[in-house]
Amino acid sequence: MPLQISKLTYLRLLPKFIVGQGNGLGIKELMKLSHLQGQLWIIGLQNVVNVRDAELSGLHEKLGLDELALEWIDNFQVSRNGGDELHVLSSLQPHRSLEKLSIKSYGGTVFPSWVGDPLFTKMVDLQLCSCRKITSLPPLGKLPVLRHLSIKGMDEVKEVAVEDFPSLETLIIEDMLGWEQWSWPNGINEDVGKFPKLRELTLGNCPVLIGKLPSYLLSLQKLDVYNCPRVTCLPEMLPCLRELNVGECQEEIFRSVPVLTSLRCLKIRRISGLVSFREAFLQALVELQDLKMEDCNELECLWQDGSNLDKLTNLKHLRIYYCEQLVSLIKGEEGFLPCNLEVLQVIGCHNLEKLPNGLHSLKSLRELEICKCPKLVSFSESAGLPDTLKRLEINECVSLEYLPEGLMTMTDENNSNQSPS
């Protein structure tokens, strides 16, 4: 950056400020830029040698700033003085009307007291990322209007407290390699929801997280849980949940049957131990429209013959990708697919031998795609396809002996019929 930038005393927009090394541009050069507005991203804070320089930057006086990002080098292998970095961050306290704050790769073990201070009455977005030496989080629930919170890469944090977050709408917690459990402060009932407005929750790559999740998430609409193999149950009350994505977890997570009366989209990936769905879980999916299964290598079938599927009448899209042990979609001879299915895709299921009965009775089926299923010998014995079918693709099914009856008489000009290859 230009060394003389501080002479632009009426400068209003400076999205990025890079702190130089040695005789390079110092953090104190921000002192004279009192008219800055909008967003400011300060990079290279590891180059601040003198804490007094950080104080002279005068961030607390720059009342025009709405967003502030503070970033250190993302290298914790080199020698770093956590105490010095704490003093620097303490000195970079912004004004209390700031709306968005991001702190990345900070090397202290604790945050200064201003992080989470309830006097930041306009703070709506907070991101704490890759602060790998932090051992505990500040009481962030005291921020009265905080709507979006992201916590990532805090390897030394063992517990995350469940606080009252009256305004929180989005919570992302990822890459927490040492996080073991949620904790409920004394006097707080762990069965009472502390997130009354939470709409989206992401928990990812938290390999040692155990125990229950917050139970009553009454406003939650989207839940992502991935690579949390020791999380064994979903929250109990999810009446507004519309989308659920679960990956790299254990089958136990589906043994409990939460309230899922609004769930429309379910995506499942790499679930260890999942052989088939339990009927009680299927019965909870009364509004499900889209089911996607991917890389579930122990899955043998979706459900057992005889399972009551009367609650799956809204299912329209069924996609199954690369489930190596899948032999049939339904275990047994008499099983049928949900009656209102519109799209069926089965790709890369190398042990699939046949498709279920009654494909011809699926009067809403528009698309059927079967690819890379080398053991598929035939369609169901009650062969035939519905007249509603608009797209058919069959590829790399080398053992397929014959196509469904009536296939060659399908004349709709939009059909795409491909022979097995």
From TrEMBL:
<dbReference type="InterPro" id="IPR032675">
    <property type="entry name" value="LRR_dom_sf"/>
</dbReference>
<dbReference type="InterPro" id="IPR056789">
    <property type="entry name" value="LRR_R13L1-DRL21"/>
</dbReference>
<protein>
    <recommendedName>
        <fullName>R13L1/DRL21-like LRR repeat region domain-containing protein</fullName>
    </recommendedName>
</protein>
<dbReference type="Pfam" id="PF25019">
    <property type="entry name" value="LRR_R13L1-DRL21"/>
</dbReference>
<feature type="domain" description="R13L1/DRL21-like LRR repeat region">
    <location>
        <begin position="27"/>
        <end position="154"/>
    </location>
</feature>
